[in-house]
Queue: 3 jobs
Job 1
Amino acid sequence: MNKLANHCFWFLSLLILLNSCSKEYSCEDCYILKQLPIDCQAIQINGVFRQAQGLDASNYIEITVQFNKPGYYYFLTEKVNGISFSAVGNYTVGLQIIKLMGTGTPTQSGIFNYKVNNNISCAANILVENQPSPSNVFYYSATIDGVQYEAKALDTNGITAWGAVSALLGNNYETALKAVVGHNTWPPSSGYTGLMIYKGWIPQYPTATDAQIKDFLKPGSYSFADPNWVMNPPFKNGVSIVWYDLNGKSWYSDPSDDQTGRSFKITSSVDGPPSTNSNYQVTITAEFNCKLYNSNGDVKTLTNGKFFGFTGRY
């Protein structure tokens, strides 16, 4: 009798487990990854993972799986350090590469372990980097047409950061400020990218105080505007983004007044970096999304844009 009761207990437990799995994975015939051959040496981690920076389309895990039976499969990891990975779909028999897309925002830096469908035999170990240090690493990063681009202004990689002004024009001496991260020549040489943020305009620029320049770059949301590269009035206040691709081709944000689907926000502005002369500089951190166009009218979509650079009085 005890043996029968024991069997009933395990049978009921199995039913509860199966019902729970059915609700979790939303399919009646789910096969979890630990029941399938996986090449542990072939796990690939894609994208840059940073503390407090939300994941995008560039952040994912690739696993190689041998499917012995066609069907509907659901792969996922637990949520660790604020992020998780998942993929779902119908797969045929054979060896296939599965892309598990990442979601969430890492809360801490360090190395974190992600087991797919609780597979304990092999897992992805993901390094989450610290946010760039304001004292020594200027950078830009963005996903452009689904491809992740990044440039860090290190001393050894040919990438640098600088600030500049457009010109001193007319009786009012109106001037726009530029902040750049890119190759140490501008436009960048082939094989390098570069991004410039252009913000206009400051009237009476030569006599503007440090406080007025800093206020011009204060945190807040700003509209996109025509940067008026030919320098003909009337000037419009706003921001513009210029990006050079790996082939040395330039792309510009839309100069129209329609702000639909795009945004630009300065999230912080602080004094510095220090200058060796009388220049006054302001370090800014910005986030943005927009469309980019070339001279032929081709368009690219820029998302999750981030910028850490400086500009000011020159």
Job 2
Amino acid sequence: MLDLGDSQITYRARYLASLPPLVDDGMMEKPRRLHMRLASDLSTASAADLDPKRIFIIEQNLLSLAEAIAARYFQHGPNAARVAKNAGLA
């Protein structure tokens, strides 16, 4: 447990900055939007609301979030997402 704790402290100390947005237009990227929507839905739900249909919808939303994260942060090669550079008006 101590090794794990030390590793997390080291990781956080080295990697404090967040990744840059792909497009600097002030809009939330898809993974962030999906996360916020899912977190809001789960934090406001009551146990009585969690029937099998609702749990299936949550599962589908989690899968969509995982796919959005993978597409945003883990693609390599020619299809990888690239940071857009704004061309100024000159």
Job 3
Amino acid sequence: MNVLFISSGNRGGRISPIVQSQMASLIEMGLSVESYPVMGKGMIGYLRNVSRLRNYVTCRSSYNIFHAHYSLSAFVATMAGCRPLIVSLMGSDTKTGRISRTVIQLLSAFFWSRCIVKSGQMRKDSGLRYARVIPNGVNMDLFRPVSKFEAQERLGFASRKNHVLFGSDPDRPEKNYALAAAAVGRLNTNELEIHFLRNIEHEKVPLYLCACDVVLLTSKREGSPNVIKEAMACNCPIVSTDVGGVAWLFGSEPGHFLTTFDPEDVAAKIRAGLGFSQRDGRTRGRKRLLVLGLDSKNVAGRIIQVYQTALGHER
């Protein structure tokens, strides 16, 4: 089966690590997968890619399936005539305005062969009753537990301090760093250092996760946050707002703390996470992910089933 991934290439012509990881897992399952990076910002920037993508596909008639990631890439693929088209909505797509949601619903009904969302809440928000819920999987070979002290030594972190990792770029408004900063301000910052996942090579992310006592996510909204699953794969204690199916991911496993959007509550949960880290060390998040079937190979198999169903013209 030959597949063309269509997704944003606004990282210097490279697709996101999340999409790259899914692509790699499908290749491991025996599929031939290529990627087409969509270059440009905003609706106008994306739409400039329609004719380019159409010409690209016309010159290569060997694809069985087209798979677009994120709604804007899906709009481009739809207008370029890519069929059959699978669309993965990534999270913020379902939190847009009514007009955009209506367009997504219409395209899904009449042009997209299948639609994938990352959580049950995304399916509810989008109004796409028949969308398949398939969260992104985790590369369990890359994201695995490493000794905290070994990771701290390799990164140059002070072992005498507590370390909290904010699981994103604090400059992204939807990640709500203001809440994290307000909560950290209520703690003894002389004994605590906060770090950020900003401009970090994907292959080095596991080191940062394992070097920290607590991984913190204070997002206003999420689809199915990958950093939470990656931290779970590393058995890290985690504090997170209740977004994007995080409660389902956590289950009742100790060392995972859900919080409200109250800074006092976030601060209290960080204290609890630090206490857990000092007392118990690591969680059983990795085992929980395997129970949920969220390793990348299992997820790749589910995506292949979607492809096969689309090619069989079943609904």
